[in-house]
Every structure is written in structure tokens, then in C-alpha cells.
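Example record used in the benchmark description.
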Amino acid sequence: MTKTIKTVGVCGAGGTMGAGIALVSARAGFKTISFDSSEVSLNRSAQQSADFLNKSVARGKLSGDRRDAILDSMYRSTDAAELSECDLVIEAIFEDLTAKRKLLGRLDEVCAEDAIIASNTSTLSITEIAAGSNRPERVVGMHFCLPAQLMKLIEMSPGILTSDATFEAAWEWTEACGQIPVRTQDKPGFILNALLVPFNNDAIRAVEAGVAEPADLDRAIKAGLGYKMGPLELIDLIGLDTQVRLCEAFYPITLDPRAATPPLLKRMVAAGLLGRKSGRGFFEYHGNAMFGA
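Model output (C-alpha cells):
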């Protein structure tokens, strides 16, 4: 590799996306330190990760010894200082530019000068996020797809000041993890969300307009377009509150009316219908196992 990466940190690892990224890293043989401000969230995600691996063993996809090795390489902490030994730190906190910049400033304080800082942002500018660091040349975009432990694609986006060496090292790490990287420009939504945010909103508006019930709409999309998951199932998976944040981040940048938050989505979030995480969104769910386990 351009830079040898041995230890990886994941910030926001108590969330679904962060937990999945930590699994990707540990499964590839890297020592992985999961950081989150909430110990409860970290413990919950650790249990979900263990359950996911246990089910992989039960299905014959993983040996018991390999499962144990993966779990032994995963560490958890609520202290950001524990990330000091990391060669690569991936932030996967919520979509808020101020919060991400603040986190990068903290990472400047605790990480080695040559550490690579990657942002898992799905809509925000890598260049603007990197402005929160005093070493923007070491910051790169690395957008995993949900669920990260199952989906292979990673959108790799350099900011204006990202060095070639940083981008190449991050790219090589994704390949070492068995992922599929694609290079994108530092544009709103990159590839996937530039297409998905408006499309998912269209599906929500169709339900609100009475075009079809959620199950029928998703069934039509899957049967007619060949999608493995319908848009409303996907929104339930990522969280309706997350879809709101995506809209709020994406619409002011693009001014695309299709990216504006649908009224039905706002009402459902206000009612606490957040999708899988709350047990009910466009559909109802039971249990809190990590998706795909």
C-alpha cells in the first residue's frame, strides 16, 4: 500500500452504518476500534455484530474460529483518545456539517499526523468537511452502502486538497477489504444519492397521493425494475429520520424540488415512525437483529 494501514477506527460505530463498517474492517483482518459517545449504543451494536457472525457460522458461511478471530480484533471505546493508534479513521456520524467538522478537529488532536481521515458522508461536500481539519490533504470521502457488511460498493471522493497518496492508500484499503471502490467527483450526493434521494421521495409522494399502498408500490418496483429491495423498504432500513436529514442536506445544495422533504415523511418522523430502528415505518418489524444476519 501507499501507506500501510494496520489499525482502523470507526467513529459513530454505535449506529447501524458505523457498526457495519467496523465489521467490514475487522472481517478483512484489521484491528478495528469502534468509537461512539454512547456506551449503550456501542454495546448494542457489538451484540448485533456478534449475532450477525453467529448466524453466518450457523449458515456455513463462516467458521467458528474465523468468527472468534474477527470478534477478537474488534475493540470499543467512548474515549476518542483511543483512536491515536489508528492509521485510518472513518467517521460515520449523522449528516451534519458542523458536527463532522468538530469531530475532525478532535481527530487532529488525537491522531498521528500521517493518519488518513475518511468521511462516510452520503450528501455533504468532502472539501467542506475537510475544512474542519488542519490537514485537509489527509481527508477523503469513503461512502459505504447500507448495509455495509453486505454491500460491496464504496464511493471514493477526493476533496480539492486531498493528496494523491491519501486517495490511493484509501482506495487500496477498500480493495484489501474485498469491497468495490468507484471514483466520484465531490458533487452533491455523489452517484447513488444524487439518484436515490429524489427517487425515494417520489415513492413517498406516490403513497401520500394514494397511488398505491407501500407493499404494492415496492412489489411493483422489485418485479418491474428488478430491484432487490423496494424504495420504502430501503427508507425503513436507513431510517425515516435519516431520509429527512438527507433531504435537508441535499435540497439546499441542489434546489431540486424532488429532493425536498415530503410532508408525509415529516409527519411520520414526528410520530416516531422511524422504520426498522423503531419497529415501524412504512412496514412493521419485530426484533433488532442487524440487517442481513
